[in-house]
Amino acid sequence: MSQLAQHAVSERNIPDPALRARIVAGERISASEALLLFQHWPLHDLGALAFARKRALHGDVATFIVNKQVNPTNICVHSCKFCEFAAKPGDAHAYVLEEDDIIASLADPDLAEVHIVGGLWKTWNFERALGLVRRIRATYPALWIKAFTAVEIDFFAKCTKQTWQQVLAQLRDAGMDGLPGGGAEVLSERVHQELYKDKMGPDKYVAVHEAAHEMGITTNCTLLFGHIETDEELVDHLIQLRASQDRTLAHGTGFEAFIPLAFQPGETGIRTSLISPMHCLRVIAVARLVLDNIPHIKAYWPTLQMETAVAALTFGADDLDGTIEQERIMHLAGSGAGRGLNVELMFRLIRDAGQVPMRRSGRFDRLMEPAKAAVAAAMVPSPAAPKDFVATSALEADLAAV
Ligand code: SF4
């Protein structure tokens, strides 16, 4: 038998049919089962299981948002080994943005969300951050403001000698809607010590998010993968997020979305090439199956690269994130993905994945923009609608009919 034929046969062999049946039935899986899926399950079947789970949750719709990322400064007190975004004062690539420029950059009637995250530096202290949120809220009342990672919340709290809760309450009162998920990296003390020991570790990351959830503030969570983490650490990261969600959902809010971020090696010396697309798809699929209490999985195209992000929409992801103009962090780290996508291209990419494209709000409400949908339909050779697509709302029916 040729190697190719042997491979085809082995791909048909499911390692544990009983586990497969439990997954199909929607049962929760353990860490050891997740590891088996991640390391040994045939990729096509893993993707099919995760895609089925995604469809049960979200139908054949894949969403995106028109958003902008604002990174007020890249100057940072820390020197995380994986980070090529950060600078020290005086570095050629160091920069500090001014409020007037940030406010002006958000003057886009289509904009639904601003995502604010940056370096930790006294020039952009808590008072200034608070003032920025107030100004954005006053200038753009409808904009969803997703601002400051758990790492920044902790930095503000330390600098102002306040608790996380006090910092979060003031930001919320100023107009902040939610927290982004950055700063988790891998919830492993070993990785923490190895790559970013000066920055907050796993326990504090989870604790800040749980503090926000207890206050009714929704947040996202992330994973930076494809560097020194082991498969076991990666799976444990997912299990820790699921356990945290269980703890706070019953009496607060929780994580709205999980965003796996593929490590961009750049000049870090940690590794020399991007992690493979197949590895990325395995992470997305296993995340969808483990995180049964987190509604959304994002395919974050600036780190996955566009082709893999589009493929991820049939491996468990339900959201292509956003148009993300002005994103600096991954591009300073060497990401070759495009820098900001327009709405029409989002429509095209999602349709190419066989999904129904839908704009969304910052809180994941689905939005219908008939004019934009018509423009997209004119541009895109429309793929056949999935045979068993069932419209579950008037919005989906409208868009499916375009
Ligand atoms: S990852 Fe964040 S905290 Fe670490 S150096 Fe980069 S900007 Fe600073």
Lay out the secondary structure.
Elements: H1 3-12, H2 17-24, H3 31-40, H4 43-58, E1 61-65, E2 67-70, H5 99-105, E3 113-116, H6 126-139, E4 144-147, H7 150-160, H8 164-174, E5 178-179, H9 189-195, H10 202-214, E6 218-225, H11 231-249, E7 255-262, H12 277-290, E8 296-297, H13 301-304, H14 306-312, E9 319-322, H15 329-332, H16 343-352, E10 356-360, E11 366-367, H17 370-379, H18 394-401
Helix pairs in contact: 3-11, 3-12, 4-12, 6-8, 7-8, 7-10, 10-11, 16-17
Bound molecules: iron/sulfur cluster.
Structural commentary:
- This protein is α/β, with parallel strands linked by helices.
- It has one domain: Aldolase class I (TIM Barrel, Alpha-Beta Barrel), CATH 3.20.20.70.
- Helix content is 46%, strand content 12%.
- The protein has helices at 3-12, 17-24, 31-40, 43-58, 99-105, 126-139, 150-160, 164-174, 189-195, 202-214, 231-249, 277-290, 301-304, 306-312, 329-332, 343-352, 370-379, 394-401, and strands at residues 61-65, 67-70, 113-116, 144-147, 178-179, 218-225, 255-262, 296-297, 319-322, 356-360, 366-367.
- Strands 9-1-10-11 form a four-stranded mixed β-sheet.
- Helix 3 (31-40) packs across helix 11 (231-249), helix 3 (31-40) runs antiparallel to helix 12 (277-290) and helix 6 runs parallel beside helix 8.
- The model is unreliable at 4-9 and 382-402 (pLDDT under 50).
- The structure holds iron/sulfur cluster (SF4).
- Iron/sulfur cluster binds next to loops.
